[in-house]
Amino acid sequence: MKRIQLLFLLFIGISLQGQVNNTLDFTADIKTYDVSDLWTLEKIQIYGDTATFERSEPLGFIGENFQRFHIRLISVIKHPENEFVYFVYGKTRVKNNICSFQGQITITESRLYEKGDVPNLKQGFLKGKYVFFEDASKKGTGVFKGDLKTNFYIDEKGELTYDALSFGADGYKNNQFKGTWKSYKTGQSKICNWGDDRIPDSAALDVGTAEFYPGDSYDVFGWGNYQ
Fold it and tell me: Nearest CA to 151 among 61, 23, 53?
């Protein structure tokens, strides 16, 4: 059974890579859904299977030396009036410095692929902008700002779900956040990116092929205990 599931995942992964990127606008429709779970879910369920998997902690880095960066979006709540906006609360960690933050995600675009890879499913993505404000009373804090892309699919019941159709296949990724962090104190900005299973613009750090793996030269920047 596990062998069949693995072959299915590999097939989906290959199909997705070859997928023609013809899309339909879904921006007006995305506001009718509450997509907060796409960023906070703790378990991933593979389509067509009852088994669930723990969603891994997002992978991230900050600065030119690719210092390991941890982030967790603990609570995401849809704005009661502006249906494209979500209020966000979470925590970050760099080395031993832990800090809470608040902010928002604003959806700017959403599209569905004209042809999906799984019958009866509608595959798509949303894009947006985020701004997260760390607690200014804490040491070494600032503002995160940037762009994001999240993949989803809509099932036969019309429910919008985190896209894990190619989970386990080479190059799988989701929830790609790409932006900067700017210090309250100094005004200095640093690149800061994170995502599920892969990190945007991390080619120098990520030497893995099938999955993310940090180069040995970055062990001293927090990646030494990565497994």
Answer: 23
